[in-house]
Amino acid sequence: MNPAAGPVPRRVVAVSPHLDDAAFSAGGFLAGLAAAGADVLLLTVYTATVPDPRGFALACQLDKGLDADVDYMALRRAEDAAAVGALGVRGRHLPLAEAPHRGYTSAAALFGDVVAGDDDQPEVVAEHVRAVLEEEFGDGSGGVDLLLGPQALGDHVDHRHVRDAVDLLRAGRDLPVSRWADTPYLLRPGAQEPRGAARPPTASELDAKVAACAAYATQLGFQFDGVAAMGEALRATPEFFEPVG
Question: Residue 119: how many CA atoms within 13 Å on its side-chain side?
Fold first, then answer.
């Protein structure tokens, strides 16, 4: 299914690697779907609190000005709850840990080869998502009219795992899938070209998207150099979707 055209799907599930990816990349589309009456579930994969983080995992919160005793992921989950409210969608969080807690020990490692013991992640993610679809909608494909996930532009390992998990979910099923172009990776110098059709959000969708993304306060300085720069960048950037199958 091409989200840039066609009728409004009734049930939509967006599988986001991290707490902000779907909003940054496809928030306008998600807000528009919800405003048109679709049941939109934003399901974020890597949201688990890991007690007493160390090393690179701890550095990922210290470099955002947060003390070591702050529950970083609890803070991020609260930001996400505000964001999904601004988009008008429903949100759920899976209890899986981000890559810095799974053996990736530097920023460079996040964009390199899969580390030993982490190669089963697409299957693990797919199993968790499948369980949510069963609980929410009653069967393995969930009666879902559209399943959304990342293209994995930028090659972050968590994005790659979620992309591959979505492929596993659609295997052997008549399950329409579309992949969004990952923002803010899309905006960076030398970025990979987005695949699929551009879908510029409407003015009202952009307002909802920017309001939602502003909720991710811990991320905006790191990703966009602040809330004003985030709004400017997202308002100037169309969303891209690549239909699969």
Answer: 5
